[in-house]
Protein 1
Amino acid sequence: MSLSRASLALCEGGFLETILPIRVFATLTAPRQLSQERLFYSFRVWVLQIQCHEKLTLGWVRSIETRPQRHIHGALVAAAPLDCDFAERVWRRIVAPKYADAARVEPYLKGCCGLGYILKTLDTPYEGAEFSPNLSAFALNNPATHFRTNLAQRRQRRRIDAQLQAHKKDFAQ
């Protein structure tokens, strides 16, 4: 039995929703067509600025779509809720200060298939879905592993674990 692409995305997204503290769903666009490299660079800068503002380590899941123009759908993972208004302002500042519709950033609602929507490009010739390298460190109830990790990766995992422990009460949302 073969799963359809939509079913596969919903299964993967549903599974990830159960183990990750997903905080934000975002649709990020630009008023003009940006190259894929420029869009990914802007996304990295966006994540880093939010991370600096929130003083939290962030993980992410993103996919790029090319129609009607190139844009990103993404989810941010963090130990505590994030400031969506700030995230919108940062994206507009990076790509288009005068383009009010450049970013739509909302608190993530579990059960609404947001990750399924982001992962809808799975199993296509153009797989645009990507995951941050530190995403596994956010997995709830996942024992830490140090197999094939370097010192920096272990240090980041300890930092994320400490943030998750400090914000445990926020997971009930």
Note: The radius of gyration is 16 Å.
Protein 2
Amino acid sequence: MSPPLFFKRKLLWITAIVTFCLAAHATSSLSFDGGGYVVDLEIGDTDRPVVASVTFHRPGDAQGVVLRGNFWVQAFDPRCQELVLVYGGGDGRVEPFTLTVQGSRASLAVAGRRIQAPFRWAM
């Protein structure tokens, strides 16, 4: 392979990687932590932020259960700091729950309890 062709291929490869990296959107996470329950939300930043996945931790559960696609986001507006996320069941390891956030206050309704905790919108 001649050196000019080698360098052209290298340059194309580097250009492709840089283009992909610039086009890829960052993710961030938000979290609820109260009453021993932790709900981690992975936020994907496409044209507008979306909840990409949810990891639910029961009290004492360090690993958690990842919920993908089997939850419903009724409202998600980071600018107005509003979120309503509903999980209706489907995975026996996680009870149905509703996470409601207004500003810095959050409420998790799970297992017949309503747990209040602060919520931080640092994305």
Note: The first helix runs from residue 3 to 23.
Protein 3
Amino acid sequence: MNWFKEFPQEAFLSLIASGLTEDEALQNINLERKLKFGDTVLVQLQVKSSEFKDRLEEAKRQRADVWFNGIAKSVNKVIEKEEVPAEMLKFEQRKYLAAIDNPDKYSEKKRLSYRDWE
């Protein structure tokens, strides 16, 4: 059996883009299969297929938008005082995950100008 051809790439990438982590997407795919795919399959796919690797990176960039949308939705949410620490933690987690998945769009990197060198 050729696991490379058997792995449901489209379904996996769609799950990633929808907001699932790689582990969650893999578990979701494995729920419906007798033969289970392990974590090493993902590594091997990325090594053997630059196309899959590129498509996975694009799915992660889309997932970053899901994380960011979670932040936007939480801003208008009314919460009780005792819920503030938990909501702040969720906010920071989403912000971090969005920056990891799409650093060009969501990281808090500082852009240097010529004045910074003076």
Note: The mean pLDDT is 88.
